[in-house]
Write a structure and sequence with these properties.
Elements lengths: L6 E6 L7 H10 L4 E7 L4 H10 L11 H10 L8 E4 L7 H9 L4 E3 L7 H14 L3 E3 L7 H11 L6 E9 L13 H6 L2 H4 L4 H17 L3 E9 L10 E8 L4 E7 L10 E6 L3 E5 L5 E5 L6 E4 L9 H5 L11 H18 L8 H19 L5 E2 L6
Parallel strand pairs: 1-2, 1-3, 3-4, 4-5, 6-9
Antiparallel strand pairs: 6-10, 7-8, 7-14, 8-9, 10-11, 11-12, 12-13
Length: 384
């Protein structure tokens, strides 16, 4: 990998009308170490070319399909070809380009969830293990400085043995049948052929589940869920209530909803231990609250109290205290760590294919449990 130039990213998806592709592009380039060099931005070749023109890419680096991009980029001289592939397509289009990229020797950064199904996720995990090529998954909330601080506080034993986790992710944008209006983001998320077995759990519930495991260091072993579709005519769930049993005897509650009117992105994590508790809210990401039985609540802020913040939190912080950092910066932290691993080796603090398989196991367990009337269901196939 190069030491004197930016890493070149090739993107699959993220063309005109897409949302998350632009987020990936901004995040990847935020620290100046990565540049967008090529792309297959749509399954429609004309739309891909138009999107590449929007992004000021040379015409010979804009492709009509991911297969064409991977084939032609692989054939370029070592000093010209892309260094990795970013996949920012809907769920059903994650496995094919990821598989092609890995088989061609390209590292991959993939949007979540990992695939359309658990079976696809297992296939992808087997390929990553066989090739040994770096693979990252953008559960981006793990990139926030105060999430990393929360994780360190739990790991250091400040809270004692974990007893209870409460994870919430309410949104309100699908409270009406938005998918019938032609809105692209709503249309594919509510379509089983493109989203998979779940809308709400797959789209945002997996974020809450990943954050639960990331911060506590405890795996979800089994769950009991009720998935509900409140909007008439919708094919997939838009609300989920899930009870969790975690390693070590901890218990949890996870609520995700996309029909909670006037909620935006209310990801909220509360962890209760024997000696204390903590709370973090995504809509106020620079604050971590610690609560104790024998003293006042403690507020820890991003960029402040430098002598007290963990190395992990400081490493994810860019600005001095009082200058807000948020969603894009958290996303960028994943790309920064991914790039460092490509250049220097080592294991980046980035969600892996194993995390992706666990996410797919979580989705399928929620669906199975709900269909069985909320029966306790083990996560199958989510082992690392």
């Amino acid at each position: 990998m190069p030491e004197s130039r930016k890493l070149r990213m090739g993107m699959v998806g993220g063309g005109r009308g897409a949302f998350i592709g632009a987020v990936h592009r901004m995040a990847a380039t935020l620290d100046g170490g990565i540049e967008l060099a090529a792309g297959a931005f749509s399954s429609d070749p004309e739309k891909s070319r138009a999107s590449g023109k929007d992004l000021f890419l040379p015409a010979d680096r804009v492709y009509g399909s991911y297969a064409e991009m991977i084939e032609k980029e692989r054939a370029r001289p070592a000093g010209e070809k892309i260094d990795f592939v970013a996949i920012v397509t809907p769920n059903h289009e994650h496995l094919p380009p990821a598989r092609a990229a890995l088989l061609a020797g390209f590292p991959v950064m993939c949007d979540k969830p990992l695939a359309l199904s658990l079976a696809e996720a297992r296939e992808l995990r087997a390929l990553v293990r066989k090739t040994g090529i770096l693979f990252g998954l953008t559960h981006n909330y793990s990139g926030y400085p105060m999430v990393k601080e929360a994780r360190r506080r739990v790991a250091s034993g400040d809270l004692g043995r974990i007893r209870r986790v409460v994870a919430e992710y309410p949104q309100g944008w699908l409270a009406s049948p938005l998918e019938t209006s032609g809105q692209k983001q709503a249309a594919w998320r509510t379509d089983p052929a493109r989203a998979g077995a779940s809308c709400c759990v797959g789209d945002i519930g997996t974020h809450a589940a990943h954050l639960t495991e990331y911060v506590t260091g405890l795996r979800i072993e089994e769950l009991a869920s009720e998935l509900t579709t409140f909007v008439a005519g919708r094919a997939l769930d838009d609300d989920a209530s899930v009870l969790l049993r975690l390693e070590g005897g901890a218990r949890g509650v996870l609520w995700a909803s996309q029909v909670a009117i006037d909620e935006e992105n209310g990801l909220n994590l509360r962890i209760y231990g024997e000696k204390g508790s903590l709370q973090w809210k995504q809509e106020e990401p620079n604050t971590l609250m610690l609560k104790w039985p024998d003293r006042p609540r403690e507020i820890v802020r991003t960029g402040a109290n430098y002598e007290r913040l963990s190395r992990e939190a400081l490493g994810a912080t860019r600005l001095p205290a009082g200058h807000p950092e948020g969603y894009l910066e958290a996303f960028a932290n994943l790309y920064k760590d991914f790039a460092a691993a490509l250049l220097e080796g080592g294991t980046p603090d980035v969600p892996t294919v194993d995390d992706g398989v666990r996410g797919m196991a979580f989705i399928e367990a929620c669906v199975e449990s709900s269909k069985a009337g909320g029966r306790w269901t083990k996560l199958q196939g989510g082992e690392s």
